[in-house]
Specification:
heterotrimer; A mainly beta (100); B alpha+beta (374); C alpha/beta (464); B: 374 residues; FAD/NAD(P)-binding domain; D-Amino Acid Oxidase, Chain A, domain 2; 2 domains; C: 464 residues; alpha/beta; Arc Repressor Mutant, subunit A; seven-stranded mixed sheet; five-stranded parallel sheet; 17 helices; binds flavin-adenine dinucleotide; binds FE2/S2 (inorganic) cluster
Chain lengths: 100, 374, 464
Amino acid sequence: MKIDSRFQARPKGNISLSIDGEIVFAHKGDTVATALLADSGNASRKTNKNSPRTPFCMMGVCFDCLVEINGSPNEQSCMIQVEEGMVVKRPKGLRNYEQK
Amino acid sequence: MSDKNAEFIIVGAGVVGLSIALGLLQKGHQVTILDGGDSDLSASKGNFGLIWLQAKGSHFAPYAKWTHKAVKKWPDFAKSLEELTQINLALEQTGGYEFFTDSNEFKAFQADLKQQQIHLGKKSSYEILTGDDLRKRYAGIGDKVVGATFCPLDGHVNPLKLFSALHSAVLTLGGKIFSNNKVKNITPLQGGGFKLLALNGNRFYSDRVILAAGLGTNSLAKQLDFVTQVRPQRGELLITEKIAERLPFVSSTIRQVNEGGIQIGGTSEEAGLDDSESLNVMVNLAQHAVSVYPQLSNVRVNRAWGALRILSPDGYPVYAQSHQYPGAYLVTCHSGITLASLHCSLLAEWIIDASNQSTLEAFSENRFSISSAA
Amino acid sequence: MIDAELIIIGAGPAGMAAATTAANEGATVLLFDEQPQAGGQIYRNVKNQSNRLDNKNYFGKDYLSGKKHVDALEHENIKIEYGATVWRIEDGRHVVWSKNGISKISSAKHILLATGAQERPVPFPGWTLPGVMTAGAAQILMKTSGLLPRDAILAGSGPLLYLIAVQMIDAGAPPKALVETQTFKKTLSAAKHLPNALFAANTLFKGLGFLRKIKEAKIKVAKIKRYTACSGFRAEESVDGSIEFSFDYRNVNHKIKTPLLLTHQGIVPSTHLSRASGISHRWNETQKAFQPITDLWGQSETPTIHVAGDGASIGGAETAQAAGRLTALNIVHHLGHLNKDERDKKAKADRSLFNRALSIRPLLDNLYAPLPEFLSPPNETIVCRCEEVTASEIRQSIAEGAAGHRQVKTSLRNGMGPCQGRMCDLTVRGILIDSGINPDAPRARTPIKPIKLGEIANLKIPPE
Ligand SMILES: Cc1cc2nc3c(=O)[nH]c(=O)nc-3n(C[C@H](O)[C@H](O)[C@H](O)COP(=O)(O)OP(=O)(O)OC[C@H]3O[C@@H](n4cnc5c(N)ncnc54)[C@H](O)[C@@H]3O)c2cc1C
Ligand code: FES
């Protein structure tokens, strides 16, 4: 079930990225964590013990915002700005080796 | 206070001290362990967790045999410790590799293995693999690997879980552990027994005393008339983020902890008592890992650290009773994880009654006194 | 070979002020920041405000004033690397930094750490749930992306909490409730520091102004409920994904539903890099945090390593700027650009500003001291978010003899995940203190942030 974002809706942005296969629009200057939070109120990752998490500190301290970006797992999404065509995946549990 | 009077006092609550304590407690003896503070040097909290036979004691037969025995005894030891504490040690003893990227080192190591084999006879075997053999076995091995050796008895354990389990087993069996009681002085008493004075002013009394104080051994050893002096040797390690997929092998330099992180290590440097991590070693370790298993290149290092190994003058264990003060023992070794299975059994029995274990004579201090006289 | 006379890590108020001061005195400066632009936490994204889509200023004059500090960095003596994470300091003269997946080493005669602060962790049962964030995180979302909270609750204490409350009100995203943990009694006990605080009247009135504005808004909007002296925080997930936030107020347990719970209990120095650099730290009991030990000029016992700003001691932006300039003056003096008398003369105004600003701290620190339940939280609380270790497990390990940070870590692995203890060290300390143990600052190892093995393998170490 997709939960509504916990933030107020913004005008539609013009940078498109894919989050778990769904096309999402973000704004220039957004970090990937921002785009995730703006998109939905759901967990952006599940820990090794299957507990749901979302970005927590937005300043690079907590590492709760880790997601897969363009095939690279455990990227700190609050420190990375969105780019056109980015492919983002919300991880469930531990990462694997990168498939190249 | 009866807490302060014990049959045995062990100085040092590292893996070595705790293993001996467990052995003594299991034989019905009463044991108190005194340990230092949280920031004192401790190899037990920084090691690699290998249970390793390959090339150990190539040049000293008693050590080759002792290590072989320890490795064989590990499965039973782990089982009983796990039953006692309900802590999973994550023992994996399905054989281990040494990887080589330098053909001269590869050759030299093969010679050591051959020498060890002479001491052990039919009891042990090993394999020599070329780089291509190895790549057939594991597709992910890098091109720079020129060869490897394999010993089927080698393996690893989660060293922090082992440490916790020993700690908890000692407490369960009624042993007492006092941390923040770093021992400053040990005085032999007239008519037998010892008085121990801690830095914080506490006094303790015991019938017998065992030094297992790691790098804190030297000054206490002198007080009890031992000649052994130990020295530090730094080892550095890297630990990565956790990976769900299992690394298909265990090696002496790259292993995956059961929780998922990959440890990379195997260096040794003379750095005095400095246990910092150094940049050039971090780079070397990273290069080694990436050349052995290129997939690791995209895995992040969470942290590097240094830890100090405890080396006796010749690098082999010392198990000694003081000639001057009977009832005082000194125990030190480098591979406290591998030898834990014997420290809690044969070594403890020897301490209880030396006539139990004549094989341990080879590890007495006599070897140092003779060489210094010569 | 050196890349600059001075390397500064952190382009917040302290680092920016230090960079311009040093550059104006003739020193060459290399400035690093992890963020894509200068500004630090307070002036985050100030340079690009015109790009922000809602294009309104609800952050106040103070915030916009940051732009001139950012502009001043355009100086021929200053070189800047943004998006660059410094992950190690070597021998007090080299920094190892990572940018775009490549690590490099840069060298200087002096290094200034201006790494600022992080929010103090506010652990309570449920603080890891989606929908619970720090108030500072919400402010960053507003500043960088104009993303505004919806029906949020602000909970906790500290000047920043009120500041964010006001900014949310002004942005048209007022919190539906303000759940404060401090009491009126505390305000009174803090008042004993007033004589000192009067010297810092400027800052003080600003603080009081915020409080007044909140009250006004409460009357006007009438929708912001305010609870004071609250405790017993707990968050649970409800079926629709929102947070059921419960707390005790006047001996009654209250429960409010919200999509977003924003917590805050003040900020603490970010000491990961300073601890990893090997300089000594001490516990500051009024600020309830570890801080590096330096002299009045911010110079540490390693004479080439200096610390300024919130990373040295929490004092706010103005104090950080003064500290940055003072530290820079001392460094350029050591570099030979200024003699001692010139340094002291130029330092005069900042020295008194610094002292004045610091004099208000005891008041604020007392007024907004963290609640004991956040220093040593209830048993079921997850303390280490990375490794999911609870307070009860930590208490258990202490009961079994763990005598400090390292022994607790050894048995539980808390602090060994990617954040390396940033979110749990202070709580573990609180629990140790609660158990009668006064631990040393936990050790920080490098890399202070996770770095890929391949990147470390490719690092070129230049010959000395
Ligand atoms: C990098 C590294 C990798 C290693 N890898 C392996 C491996 O793979 N396999 C293996 O088998 N072994 C390995 N080891 C070795 C193993 O960790 C040690 O053998 C073992 O920890 C030693 O235990 P110890 O009790 O002698 O010393 P320590 O663990 O150092 O414990 C000594 C204790 O004594 C206390 N102490 C010291 N002085 C006093 C005093 N005066 N009074 C009271 N207390 C005192 C200290 O506080 C400390 O707790 C490794 C070691 C290192 C450094
Ligand atoms: S949200 Fe905390 S590190 Fe990204």
